[in-house]
Amino acid sequence: MGCLGNLLWLIFGGFLSGLSWLLIGLLWCITIVGIPVGAQCFKMAKLSFCPFGKEVKYGGGAVSLLVNILWLIFGGVEMALEFAVFGLLLCVTIIGIPFGMQMFKLAKLALMPFGAEVR
Q: Any idea where the Inner membrane component domain is (predicted)?
């Protein structure tokens, strides 16, 4: 299911969600201070392009908490709302429920992406 799910995912919204992460990562990389944040956004874009068969484990420390707070102020809430709305729209049909669940996983990740590990 992983390969087929990822292929269908790209068609039905995964491509746009991955582009969102890439765009935010590029905006963060404009400044030298934001490069580590942009690098994490690129990792999340990789997950967003192919989420089926991958698991996210949350952790981190004080530095992750501080960066997550900055992330929430500068774009995390808007991105999480975007994924949540797309998830609700996809869950309207029975066929879209697995894709909606992946959007909800990405919405949670968009709130606190730093300190998260993708397996």
A: 4-54, 66-115
For 117, the 3-state DSSP assignment is strand
Sequence-distant (≥ 6) Cβ neighbours of residue 97 within 8 angstroms: 90, 91
Supply the range of the domain harboring residue 28. Answer: 2-118
Residue 32 to residues 24, 27, 45, 72, 84: CA-CA distances in angstroms? 15, 11, 20, 19, 31
Instruction: List the structure tokens of 23.
Output: 């765009």
Question: Could you give the C-alpha distances from 9 to 14, 47, 48, in angstroms and in order?
Answer: 5, 12, 9
The tokens describing 59, both together, are 């952790």
Strands (E), the chain: 56-58, 116-118
